[in-house]
Amino acid sequence: MKTYIVGNWKLNFSVGEASIYLHKLLKRVPNYRDVEVVVAPGALALQSLSLQIDRHKMKLAAQNAYYRDYGAYTGEVSFNQLRGLADYCIVGHSERRYIFREDDKMIQKKVEAAVRNKITPILCVGETESERAFGETADVIRDQVVGGLSEISEEDLDKVIIAYEPVWAISSTKSAKLASPDEIAEVVKLIRKILTDTYSAKVAEAVPILFGGSVNPSNAGAYLTVPGVNGLLIGGSSLILSEFADIIETAKRVKS
Ligand code: 13P
């Protein structure tokens, strides 16, 4: 399996800034066949960056989309409209769940719409600090994984990526803490088990599981060697070119 290095730019960079950043990143990063580099700019930049990007080197992701293909849904962007612009779409990020009140039902429809439109959803799951403190982590992860994938058949499971992002480890969370490799390994193992129980061991093994939460050049190597982790979803550090490039090089080194 490839290693996935995904940069989530969130609500940062103007269209012009995004283009300059991508230009520099394309110059800096060689074409690594076993590392899939993906950047997720804001929706407005997708059109121009899709013309600029070298798809042999890296891919584009959207940060969100709506599950209806068209209709009276003021302000929304559909997966259908993303076709040809983005290869991936982040779905169910904790910022969507908690700030924009997306529930598992909504997220499940988005995962289905992404696959239907041939865009790979990166389904984000993760518990909050209080859920962990109350011993609810396993239940929360199970609900989010099973809920998010409930419209996905066994045959389509290879078109999905899962990202484990404990909310308490995301750098913008107040008093964020670093997740330990053991904490991550335990949840990744659980996700794999949920997939095995719901589908089969064979398809469960093939689903890439990424980790996200305060990843930076100094911890990326340790996180990439956590058993079962197939890549990283990076926020803050992906906005700094030298750090993001560093993490990509680390991924290449760990892989070889
Ligand atoms: P940070 O890397 O800034 O903690 O953000 C993680 C994240 O939310 C990526 O989607």
Protein described:
The chain has 256 residues and is of the alpha/beta class. The chain is built from eleven helices and eight strands. It has helices spanning 15-28, 43-52, 79-82, 94-98, 104-116, 129-133, 137-148, 181-198, 201-205, 220-224, 241-255, and strands at residues 3-8, 35-40, 58-62, 88-91, 120-125, 161-164, 209-212, 231-234. An eight-stranded parallel barrel has the order 1-2-3-4-5-6-7-8, surrounded by five helices. Helix 3 (79-82) links the parallel strand 3 (58-62) and strand 4. The longest helix is centred in the C-terminal third of the chain and has 18 residues, at 181-198. The chain is globular, with a radius of gyration of 17 Å. It binds 1,3-dihydroxyacetonephosphate. 1,3-dihydroxyacetonephosphate binds next to strand 8.
Quick recap of the structure?
The protein is 41% helix and 15% strand. It is of the alpha/beta class and 256 residues long. Strands 1-2-3-4-5-6-7-8 form an 8-stranded parallel barrel, surrounded by 5 helices.
- Rg, alpha carbons: 17 Å
| SSE succession | EHEHEHEHHEHHEHHEHEH
Count of distinct strands: 8
Regions with pLDDT < 50 over 5+ consecutive residues?
none
What distinguishing features does this structure have?
256 residues; alpha/beta; TIM Barrel; 11 helices; 41% helix; globular; binds 1,3-dihydroxyacetonephosphate
Please give the structural blueprint.
Blueprint: E1 3-8, H1 15-28, E2 35-40, H2 43-52, E3 58-62, H3 79-82, E4 88-91, H4 94-98, H5 104-116, E5 120-125, H6 129-133, H7 137-148, E6 161-164, H8 181-198, H9 201-205, E7 209-212, H10 220-224, E8 231-234, H11 241-255
Parallel strand pairs: 1-2, 1-8, 2-3, 3-4, 4-5, 5-6, 6-7, 7-8
Residues 8, 93, 165, 170-172, 212-215, 233-237 line the site of 1,3-dihydroxyacetonephosphate.
